[in-house]
Every structure is written in C-alpha cells, then in structure tokens.
Amino acid sequence: QQQVRQSPQSLTVWEGGTTVLTCSYEDSTFNYFPWYQQFPGEGPALLISILSVSDKKEDGRFTTFFNKREKKLSLHIIDSQPGDSATYFCAARRTGGNNKLTFGQGTVLSVIP
Amino acid sequence: GPKVLQIPSHQIIDMGQMVTLNCDPVSNHLYFYWYKQILGQQMEFLVNFYNGKVMEKSKLFKDQFSVERPDGSYFTLKIQPTALEDSAVYFCASSLRRNTLYFGEGSRLIVV
What we know:
The complex is a heterodimer. Chain A is 0% helix and 58% strand. By secondary structure, chain A is mostly beta strands. Chain A has a single domain, classed as Immunoglobulin-like (Sandwich), CATH 2.60.40. Chain A is globular. Chain B is mostly beta strands. Chain B has a single domain, classed as Immunoglobulins (Immunoglobulin-like, Sandwich), CATH 2.60.40. Helices cover 0% and strands 51% of the residues of chain B. The chains are: A mainly beta, B mainly beta.
C-alpha cells in the first residue's frame, strides 16, 4: 500500500512554463513534507519543505502548497528551466517519529528549451 | 552544502557473498539512515541509527542486513549473504537532529 502517492510519473514542459507536481497521503499523523530533487547519478537533495501548520511556502521559483483537509500537497515551479530537469520526490514524516521519511514514487521532469 | 560520501559507488557481487557498503556522514551529524531504491521506484526506508543503536528498521531490513558505526568511523551496511533481490541503489543519509536528511550519491549494488 502506497502511503504517499505522487503524480504524474513523468512530465515534460517547455522552458519558461510552470511545472505542477502533486502528492497525496493517507496517514493523518504526517506533519512534515519535504520535496527532494535528484539528478541522475546523484543523491536526492532537499529542495523545499513545509510543515502541516502552513499552507504555502515559497523559495524563489519553487512553491509548495499544502491542503490538510484534502491530504494533498503540490510543488509549483515557475519559469521552468532546462536545469530543473530531474526527478522530484515528495516525502512525509510522522509526528514524534524517528525522523523516518516515506517517499512518493517520484516524477521525472524534462524541461525542453 | 553538507556532503555525505559513499563507498563504493558501484559493486558487482556474486549471490551468497558478503558486501559492505560504507558511508561517511556529515561530520557533526548524529543520526544515520539507509534507504534502498530499485531502479525506477521510490526510495524505501531500511533503518536508522543513533547513539550506537538501531532506532527503527523496516520489513525490508532482513536478518541478513546489519549496520554499525564502530568508533565514529564509517557507518556501514553489511549484507551477508546477498540475494538477487538485494540489487538496488543504497543511499546513506545523515542528520544533525531529527530534521533535514542529507543524502549521499548512492552505492549501486548488482548481485549476480
């Protein structure tokens, strides 16, 4: 059973366009949601994160939105660049847990010049 | 940013043999993790480790798996004996406290 579901599996956008990735989850005890960016041959790197007490967090061209009622979150990338081409993972962590992250399946993003 | 180093980057090993994957975590970090990623799939939690002890392990952390960090050196994942289904990329991560995880570049293990 997938605890964190991510969509789409892959996505292609034109340079300058807006990318939208989404995740949903079941476990209401999840309270921290990081997004990781992974380039081929590299490990995942934290991109942006949000706590369940917030509904939006912005960092430059990257914004994550959180909807607690619907148990959904999204990552928006404005003015997408070819250098943004990577795999993006959403993840979730429970309150009071051992800092264990549960990852979604990932979205492979290709930004075409 | 902080770097987690993993050795080896790639290893091919015969089924049944032992393998040790090494991780050099960020120097002042206290919490250590191993994740497993099969090609095209999400990363799955194996185990986390703090103060010389396993804090939590998943059902993927089979009896053939073990972790240790002797005398503050490498944080290691040992698989003995290896099985075909152990073929994957293993990512080590570390964190200072129960916060941001920093991942290494992974060790690709191929069991033949």
